[in-house]
Amino acid sequence: MMNYVQKLGRSLMLPVAVLPAAAILMGIGYWIDPSGWGSGSVIAAFLIKAGASIIDNIPILFAVGVALGMSKDKDGSAALSGLVAFLVTTTLLSTGTVALLQGVDASAVDPAFGKIENAFVGIISGIIASIMYNRFSHVKLPDALAFFSGKRLVPIMSAASMLVASAVLFYVWPVVYSGLVSFGTSISDLGAAGAGLYGFFNRLLIPTGLHHALNSVFWFDVAGINDIGNFWAGTGEKGVTGMYQAGFFPVMMFGLPAAALAMYHTAKTKRKKQAASLLLAAGFASFFTGVTEPIEFSFMFLAPALYVVHAALTGVSLFIASLFEWTAGFGFSAGFVDFVLSSRLPLANMPYMLILQGVVFALIYYFLFRFLITKFNFKTPGREDEDMDAVNNDKDDKVSADKDEVATMAKEIYDGLGGDANVVSVDNCVTRLRLEVKDMDAVDQNKIKATGVPGINVVGANNIQVIVGTQVQFVADEIQKIRKN
């Protein structure tokens, strides 16, 4: 089950990665015309509406992305089937259609059906379409129907399946919707404390990938909160809309880079140079783009207690930002780029106070991490045991002698996994290799760590993740080349 959820989380990364494009377009548009929202500038209107075309269609992107990512061949017909599945359901369960089915006026229809075009239904549509692809993409029909065999059959079966799913959702969706709204309302009614609790659990769920489920409730229009969409569209309450985003900026732009500095300063003398190469890049990625996994996975499993502290500090950051109503937003993650783009949006409220808060959090992260690492001798990067030092030093010589470091890293990681005899499948998300192996005992974790990767996460008897960083796609491509040879 956990492996399936992990795969779902990975599939969501493709559509989520589109959001920065919307952030750039809308951010520049609002920067040009912050008060008129496009009414005072044709260029601003063009950019804002172009960005809105992405934000407003997140559910469709989820349906397509999940169908593609969950299909066994990552084939385009699976993506098409995801779109078909979504259109069938959202049309059948639209307010107008439900009014016809129930024989009532549209105003009497349950308001849940007015929110049927949401991320939840998009994900369900993508999952069902991927199942149909995996089951029917190679089915051969009788000669009279041969034209509809194989991949052409998948959209048809997806549409048929969604007829059944729609019938179920006709009764289930109003109940699910009410439950999600109640959950979101219970957190939102807590005000700043609710934002703090959300931030805490958001970080705690990172290792499992289940943070995407939590994010969808607050960031997207699953429970009516839609914090990201409303913030960028300027439809909300100033000082309130954005409360589930703002507190991440002090942590991602300042706190985690400061934690990286603390880990560098506490590294063993002979390991500082190697630790610096990892932590400098990870710290910059966190500050500039808001991609935090290279830092977080560098100590998440080496020092889990330290990671809980990080989660708690994230919760405190969201609580403080919400308490003082300092708001800023992001299209992708809480990095410098999104901060600059969102600071001129209509609903941004005293965003530069988040920088002051970030400076304070940088000091807290640095001194607290440094104290805890030395006090409890946490094995953060650069503090591993001596036997690991020797392995890494040997690896340094090999890498420096090779002109293509990515290819070398890929080869060593693949060998450490057990090679062709042990590796079943290879995939990747934004920063991690996600692999399935036959025998976990055949995996040489020390050899993999010797390549300089931030960390390794064993998520089941046959599933392992290797945290590489933002260059993970190139490493995955090199491994795929090795597997084909």
Describe the structure.
This protein is mainly alpha-helical and 485 residues long. The protein has 3 domains: 2-188, no CATH class; 249-323 and 356-376, no CATH class; 386-484, 2-Layer Sandwich (Gyrase A, domain 2). The protein has helices spanning 2-16, 19-32, 42-55, 58-70, 76-92, 95-102, 119-136, 153-188, 192-204, 211-219, 227-233, 248-265, 272-289, 293-299, 304-323, 336-342, 353-376, 386-400, 405-417, 445-449, 472-484; strands at 423-428, 432-437, 455-458, 463-467. Helix 2 (19-32) packs parallel to helix 16. The radius of gyration is 24 Å and the shape is globular. 50% of the residues are buried.
Alpha-beta classification: mainly alpha
Largest sheet: 4 strands, antiparallel
Shape: globular
Oligomer: single chain
- Helical fraction: 55-70%
How many domains, in number, for the residues? 3
Determine Rg (CA atoms, Å). 24 Å
Order of neighbouring strands in the sheet with most strands? 1-2-4-3
Enumerate how many helices there are, as a single number.
Answer: 21
Mean pLDDT: 83
Strand content: under 5%
Contiguous low-pLDDT stretches (5 residues minimum) are: 387-403
- Following the backbone from N to C, one meets helices and strands in this order, namely HHHHHHHHHHHHHHHHHHHEEHEEH
N- to C-terminal separation? 32 Å
Q: Give me the count of strands.
A: 4
Domain PTS EIIC type-1: 1-385
Main location: membrane
InterPro entries: Glu_permease_IIB (IPR036878), PTrfase_EIIB_Cys (IPR018113), PTS_EIIC (IPR003352), PTS_EIIC_1 (IPR013013), PTS_Glucose_EIICBA (IPR050429), PTS_IIB_1 (IPR001996), PTS_IIBC_nag (IPR010974)
Membrane topology: Multi-pass membrane protein
